[in-house]
Predict the 3D structure of the following.
Amino acid sequence: ETGVTQSPTHLIKTRGQQVTLRCSSQSGHNTVSWYQQALGQGPQFIFQYYREEENGRGNFPPRFSGLQFPNYSSELNVNALELDDSALYLCASSLDSPPGEQFFGPGTRLTVL
Amino acid sequence: AQKVTQAQTEISVVEKEDVTLDCVYETRDTTYYLFWYKQPPSGELVFLIRRNSFDEQNEISGRYSWNFQKSTSSFNFTITASQVVDSAVYFCALTPNQAGTALIFGKGTTLSVSS
């Protein structure tokens, strides 16, 4: 059983650009959640996908969007990057239940200049 | 509103000392789950424990123990005989028993264990 993987590890972008972050969930896990973790803070929920459909969203603007694919992979897309988007982005996969027991990837460190 | 508060920002101890990390939560739900995660410098969050709101039994796993008290909305975590490898950021988290909901994290407590 492989764990959750994310790519790339690090990324540097400039303000206004667009970025796509990728995640490969644990095999058999049909739910993926994305979190943003700013420096010195706890992770903040962005959104969750279940069987390729968004089924929950945190307090993030529409320029944060996602996709989930049948092969247990997923993407987080951020348009019109802002300086405050600089953070560690974590992907977590889980089964339907028990609720919340999520397995996290190592994250992608995004820096926006 | 749901909220998790970890009042201790940083704790420093010497190896073999016991240390307790505090967690206080707020929720109006009657059914919910509480978690502790460890985040080493590598960044990956490591699951430590899950507890549902109906199970107030304390749990011990090796050097780790957890004290869940619904009356005070607290879910504290104790490391006995701390080791340098315990140095990390520890997060307490809460989630309601609903599909499509996420973990609500506290701000974390940075634990530094020196030899």
